[in-house]
Amino acid sequence: MRYFPADPAMSQKKSPHFELRSGNVDALLLALTTADTAALRDDLLSRFEATPDFFSNDVVALDLRALEDGQQPGLGIVIDTLATLKARAIGVVARHEQRAWAESFGLPLLDSQSRRGARANGREPVAEAAAEPAPAPQPVQPSAAEAPRPAPTLLIDKPLRSGQQIYAHGDVVLLDVVSYGAEVIAEGNIHVYAPLRGRALAGVKGNPEARIFCTCLEPELISIAGIYRTAEQTLPPDVQGKPAQIRLADETLILEPLRMK
């Protein structure tokens, strides 16, 4: 069989069917701090199994750098657990000495840079996971027209009954009661101009600036950016059954009366 060398002119020719660009991909960064994969699996499931749309098919990079030397957790269990929670592991962030065994699980090695401002909020829930880009002679920069638009506010003007769930990619405004057993999940803020008796989870993509507002606070669960509080913890009397707002400060939920005047 005879082989012919590739034509240099053809290798540089642009294809009408694809473009090769360098760039970053947003991904959640899951930092592992233990090699006990059974405990890690149980912790992940107990934290997120009750909110099946928390990840909403997000991609996740596994950060191994906080593990001690010699610790080698079974990443296969972590990957399967994330799949159960509707998330997909796309790669690992590792120290040099961890790379050999990390690659054995079939995930590529990634570099990581924290988003600006993440450390200022005392947490690092999201990172930009960037694979080493293939060289591109003339990278194409996205135009202003291609810039992502903010998600529109979702308006719900009917009661949310037990067993019902809504998911908003931005803010959500509800004009009627959120009943016990109902669930509101939003990547932005949640506004409830009625009694909030079910579950409300704001900033579910890791936005610590998100807030929850309601005119009557009686929730089963409230959560912002994964920090939650359940009905098992008695609410302060100045917000129980009253107008209130919930915000996050130093990874702690702050419940404050909402002045309506």
Structure description:
- The chain is mostly beta strands.
- Among the domains are: 77 residues, Alpha-Beta Plaits (2-Layer Sandwich); 104 residues, Pectate Lyase C-like, CATH 2.160.20.70.
- 12% of the residues lie in helices and 30% in strands.
- It is built from four helices and 16 strands.
- The strands form three sheets. A six-stranded mixed beta sheet has the order 6-8-10-12-15-16, with no helix packed on it. A five-stranded mixed beta sheet has the order 3-2-1-5-4, covered by helices on one side. Strands 7-9-11-13-14 form a five-stranded mixed beta sheet, with no helix packed on it.
- Helix 2 runs parallel beside helix 3.
- It is globular.
- The N terminus is likely disordered.
List descriptors:
five-stranded mixed β-sheet, 12% helix, six-stranded mixed β-sheet, Pectate Lyase C-like, globular, 16 strands, 4 helices, 261 residues, mainly beta, Septum_form_inhib_MinC_C
